[in-house]
Each structure stands twice: as C-alpha cells, then as structure tokens.
Design brief:
The protein has 331 residues and is an alpha+beta fold. It has 6 helices and 12 strands. Strands 2, 3, 4, 5, 6, 7, 8, 10, 11 and 12 form a 10-stranded antiparallel sheet that branches. The protein has a two-stranded antiparallel ribbon with strand order 1-9. α4 runs antiparallel to α5. The relative contact order is 0.12.
C-alpha cells in the first residue's frame, strides 16, 4: 500500500507542480493517503464505457425501481463490485432462493435476462461469491489462454486478480451516393486487475484507422477532432481518413468504508439519457481525480479535471490547459 501511495503522490507532484489551483487537491490526497491507509478495504475497477452490461443494469433498475443500490444510473461508469452484489441478490430473488429485502420488490427474469445476468457475472467473476465452475472453458488454448470463457488470460488468486483481453474490430461499408468504401479497423488490448483487493487498476489501448460516412468526415474536419477521441492525423495523407490512438487508464482505492477514490486518464458520465448535456462522454479523455461517497440513499461525487481546449495542430508545442471541478449530489 505504501509503495502505491508514494507512486501516486509522485505522479501528482510531477503533473501539477506548477499548477497552484490543484494544491488543495494534492493536500487532500496526501491527507487521505497518510492518515487513512489502514482503512483501505476491498477496491474494484469500473465497467468500461459502452459495455453491454450497462443496458442490462439500466433494465434491472427499471424493474426494481425502489432498489436504492441501483438508483444511481446518472453516474457512470459503474463500480463492478457494487453491480455484482446487486446482480447476485436479484438473481437469488428471481430464483426464489431469498426473499426481497425491505423496500425491494420481487422480480422475474426472462430467458434473455437470465442470459445477460450470466454474462454479467461471468465478465466480473472477481466479485462473484458463488461457484465459478460454470465460468471455466471446456477447451482452453494451450492450457493457458481462455481457461475461463470471459477472458483471454486470467489470474485469480487470493491477493491478485488480472484479466487481459484483445480488442479487434473491422467493419466495411458503402454509401449510396459515392463509390468510396467506408471502413473502421481497430486493434488493441484491455487489462484490469486488483492487488490484495486494496488497489484496482485498468487500462485500454486501441489503435484505429477509419474512413467514416461523409457527414462524419465533415464534422471531423470542421471540429478538428475525432468525436470521443480528439487528436488524429490523416491516414495515408487523405483528409477523409483518420489515424488515431485511444489510450486510457486509472488506479483506484477505497479510502474509507463509504468513499472510493479514482485517479487516471479516462472519461466520466453524469446525467441521464444516451448523451448527457451535463457531462457527456462525447469529448476526449482527460486527466481526473474523482471521490465518490455512497452512504444510505445518498451519493456525492467530487470530480476534478484537467482539460485541453480546442487547438490548431502545429509543430510540437506544449498545449495550454484548463481546469474544471464538478460536484454532484443525488438521492
């Protein structure tokens, strides 16, 4: 724990050494790290933005309605540990193994719901309390890869969890008013894990080449950015083709019983709907520090961000920064 604490503080010092507005954040983090190290408990990573589990969790929230532990869908990404806890509870209620708790209602799951429930638990097996036998693969590759159905490579021991998966996507299409083919080619890697259930970490690295529809290319040229990614360069020196890199990552701690801390370079979502006007995931990833306090029926989130304003690409220069702080209380 002390090793990660020192690394974390060193990163903050390097990144924000000359940024006076961030001194308060640095002081607060140091206070947490030095005063509360013994209170750190089980810490989880978060579901990736765009994960298929998100829609299923929203459906469970609608079906449960009065379930306090699920009524925070305006804040994303979801904490894997909390989601699995509620999924296991709902699954047990649906199977008649337990009675609904106070303020919670009975629930029935369709065959599609049952499939999605199994998929959710399988893809977050590090927090599943029941049997894991049904998650194992019948034919693992070389007795090393895909030993579980969900992950290419997985290590799940008492004090260490690691899951590594490839990212691969190829799509080809054509518009009716042009003969030029449209395509997207993505290759990358996702990695997440935990150390002694006290420190969580995750990273996603994806390399992309793309020629999107005409309206998409027009938007990229006018805004000088790829939606959701930001900086790009022309692919094969063509203005209607983009070559861009998407890299994200974070570390997370549970600094007290009800307080989670996350520090990294990624996106967050605050609001409702497909694309919130409060804090959308439409923009580029950014450096952030997030504190989330969840107790009783209250959830209070503090989000501090270092952002890059829109810029014109020139020779290598140090980009200007701007800062934002958001505080969100929901009940």
């Amino acid at each position: 724990m002390y090793v990660f604490k020192n690394i974390f503080l060193h990163i903050l010092n390097l990144r924000f050494l000359n940024q006076i507005p961030m001194q308060i954040i640095k002081t607060f983090i140091k206070l947490i790290a030095f005063v509360l190290p013994v209170t750190v408990s089980a810490q989880s990573t978060y579901l990736n933005q765009g994960s298929k589990e998100n829609q299923f969790i929203d459906r469970l929230e609608i079906k449960q309605q009065k379930n306090t532990d699920l009524n925070f869908s305006s804040l994303k990404p979801y904490n894997r540990r909390y989601i699995v806890q509620e999924a296991e509870y709902i699954d047990s209620v649906a199977k008649g193994l337990v009675n609904p708790g106070k303020g919670k209602s009975a629930i029935s799951l369709s065959k599609v719901d049952q499939y999605n429930m199994q998929s959710l638990l399988m893809n977050n097996s590090e927090w599943v309390t029941g049997q894991h036998d049904e998650f194992k693969s019948k034919l693992p590759w070389f007795k090393t890869f895909y030993r579980t159905q969900a992950n290419l490579f997985e290590v799940n021991t008492k004090d260490f969890f690691l899951a590594i998966n490839p990212v691969f996507q190829v799509s080809v299409g054509k518009e009716s008013d042009t003969s030029t083919m449209r395509f997207l080619s993505s290759r990358g890697l996702t990695l997440r894990g935990m150390i002694a259930r006290k420190v969580g970490f995750s990273t996603t690295i994806i390399d992309n080449q793309e020629r999107g529809p005409s309206f998409y290319n027009d938007y990229v040229v006018s805004s000088r950015a790829v939606p959701g990614v930001g900086f790009y360069k022309p692919f094969k020196n063509r203005k209607d083709q983009q070559d861009y890199f998407d890299g994200r990552g974070y570390i997370s701690f549970n600094v007290a019983k009800y307080i989670d801390l996350q520090f990294g370079y990624d996106k967050n979502f605050i609001g409702n709907g497909y694309r919130s006007l409060f804090l959308s995931d439409w923009g580029n990833s950014y450096l952030f520090l997030k504190l989330n306090t969840k107790i009783w029926k209250l959830n209070y989130q503090n989000l501090f961000m270092e952002l890059e304003p829109q810029f014109t690409r020139t020779a290598d220069t140090l980009l200007t920064k701007k800062y934002a702080a958001m505080h969100h209380l929901s009940m």
